[in-house]
Specification:
This protein is mainly alpha-helical and about 100 residues long. Helices cover about 65% and strands about 0% of the residues.
């Protein structure tokens, strides 16, 4: 279960992992807000996140995931050649990677 960050300033120094972390925290905070009521410090005026912001966060998250996956997939033939794996061996290794997730 995700605990939303109290301060989004932690993610302002850049980096892909920090950006994805900020997106996930925004999504988690929105989900918790709709399930449990407003999230925030006591006495703080917690406004709901606008749907456009959530839509943008999801779009960025899935776009980054797609680019990372595409960057890895184009390397599969080179990995196959480098390791000398057969098609069936490589298929079993890829199946193992997906099963481990």
């Amino acid at each position: 279960m995700c605990t939303p960050h109290r301060s989004p300033a932690r993610h302002r120094d850049g980096g892909l992992a920090r950006t994805v972390g900020a997106i996930l925290c925004s999504l988690c905070a929105a989900r918790k807000q709709t399930a449990d009521g407003p999230v925030g410090e006591p006495g703080e005026d917690a406004a709901p996140l606008p749907p456009a912001r959530l839509r943008t966060a999801l779009t960025v998250f899935f776009a980054l995931d797609g680019f990372l996956f595409a960057g890895w997939v184009v390397r599969i033939p080179a990995i196959k050649h480098h390791t000398g794996a057969t098609a069936s061996t490589l298929g079993l290794a890829l199946l193992g990677v997906s099963a481990a997730r």
